[in-house]
Amino acid sequence: MPYNQLIVPNMQDEVLRLSTNWRTLLDAMPEMVFLLKNDGAVQYMNRSAKACFGNACSQTVTESLKIIGKKCRERLPHSARSSVDDEVTEAFVDTTPVEYSSVPFVGYTGETLIMLVMRNITQRKNFERELLQFNTSIETILQQKIGELQASEEMRLRLSRQVNSLKSQLGHHHKADKMVGRSRKMRELREMIHQVSGSDATILVTGESGTGKELVANLIKATSSRDDKPFLKINCNAINDSLLEADLFGYEKGAFTGATTRKIGKFEVVDGGTILLDEIGDISPRMQVSLLRVLQNGEIIRVGGNEPLRVNVRVIAATNVDLAQAVKEKKFRLDLYYRLNIINIDIPPLRDRKEDIVELVSYFVNHYREAFKKEIDFVPKSIINRLLAHDWPGNVRELENVIQRAVLMAKGKMITEADLVFDQDPRVEQQHVDGFNIDEKIGELPLKSIVAEFEATIIHRALNKFSGNVSTAADQLKLGKTALYDKMKQHGISAKNIKQVKKA
Q1: Which domains can be identified in the chain, with CATH numbers?
Q2: Which of 21, 406, 408, 474 could tie 484 with a disulfide, CB 3.0–4.6 Å?
């Protein structure tokens, strides 16, 4: 018998033996293992994967794996298809949170596959959610969790780092801190304030109107070494230019008509303390020169005087004007801009920290129900969804106005759709629909939440376009009227409110 006829059965046996061995090895692994074809179909699942998702994957699980497989192939360079993608990535398979890494895999038939090594991180995500719910006794709670996870060294180290971070954040709490919100951006803002407040450097607080620049200035002063010294707030936009100079720097007797005596200015009054110059972007070129002298030399000259006077004042400036752009337009002095912008604290707009909206709503509802002697004790989810969908061009001040008005108008113990009236026409909001930034949301929200938010935006725009006419909007969206009503209810969208705004 020829040699090649003898070797073929042996080769088949060897292939079968190797195939059985690697399947046995993969089934013994505690991690989930998937082999995916080029089209995303599941070629193989090990025992751990079947225990989690079943012997036959559901359609939603299969779709999630296809998306993951596609991303893995995109990350692998064409010239290195045998390279291991050692990046550990978090994702959702249907509703199950997982983390995974991938590697190209050649099947025994020669087909190129993707091997996913995956771990179910539901328990870890639950722990992280628990951590966010507690703001007292946090160290005790976390240490208890660490003790319960002795089998996982990696998890213990991760939680230990989180303990230190949260202890640091708790250490930043101050009785003068009236800012509401515990989002990542607000935590970073508080950390920045506590980092720079101890110095005497000039601070420029920037942010859109209604973000709370005065609250930031109050906290800077309260956590500084000048807390027991005078603190004055000047709205530069509310005082006439000539009067502002006299108000800040004082004037000599006879400096102008009516100056019958010498008067000291605010900078002398607050000597040794702190002064807040709000709306600094609106001061005149003459005032800019005078202010530059204070910041450069610590000196002022009274109106009508010649002698410079030394003052020791910590300056906090605030503005919603883009000073860099104002410099380009020759409306603001470059040298003053540099003197003011030694430390810049930029306050995020409310639309960039929407996770704080629920806490802010609770705070304002509690405040105004006491002020108005109301008995409101419930805010429906549909109301919360509408508040979360709004773009908040007026930021926290606008939200406060909306809640104040809703509490005042509420007739029962809960806020209703009829009580919720926004300050701004929703037609202005449609400008932001095309700017829906998916990249910012990837990694921050699961796919379902991103799709739901985008869907709510499209439905709201369609209803607004057709003046709240649900039938027309459903027809244009190629959607059944009943289905559109269901989605409107799900997202807390009211056609009645849109019609009322259109009529106004």
Answers
A1: 3-120 (3.30.450.20), 124-171 (no CATH), 197-346 (3.40.50.300), 352-503 (1.10.8.60)
A2: 474
Q: Any idea of the CA torsion for 253, 259, 263, 266, to the nearest 10 degrees?
A: -130
Query: Full-prediction pTM beyond 0.85?
Result: no
- Of 41, 14, 15, 10, give the one whose Cα is nearest residue 109: 15
Strand order from edge to edge, sheet including 274-278: 231-235, 274-278, 314-319, 203-206, 343-346
Q: Which two tokens stand for residue 74?
A: 């995109």
Least confident of 153-162, 285-294, 316-325, 327-336: 153-162
Query: Nearest to residue 167, comparing CAs of 188, 136, 144?
Result: 136
pLDDT value at position 135? Answer: 54
Q: What residue has token string 């701004």?
A: 424
CA 389, CA 354: separation in Å to the nearest integer?
A: 9
What sign has the CA pseudo-torsion 260, 265, 268, 272?
positive
Q: What angle do CA 108, 112, 116 make, to 5 degrees?
A: 100
Instruction: Please give the Cα distance from 27 to 81 (Å, whole number).
Output: 25
Which comes out higher in pLDDT, residue 497 or 231? Answer: 231
8 Å CB contact between 193 and 178: no
Give how far Cα 234 sits from Cα of 264, 317, 319, 349, Å. 15, 10, 12, 23
pLDDT tens-digit series, residues 152-186: 666 666 666 666 555 555 545 567 788 998 899 99
pLDDT for 138:
59
The 10 Å Cβ neighbour count of residue 148 is 13
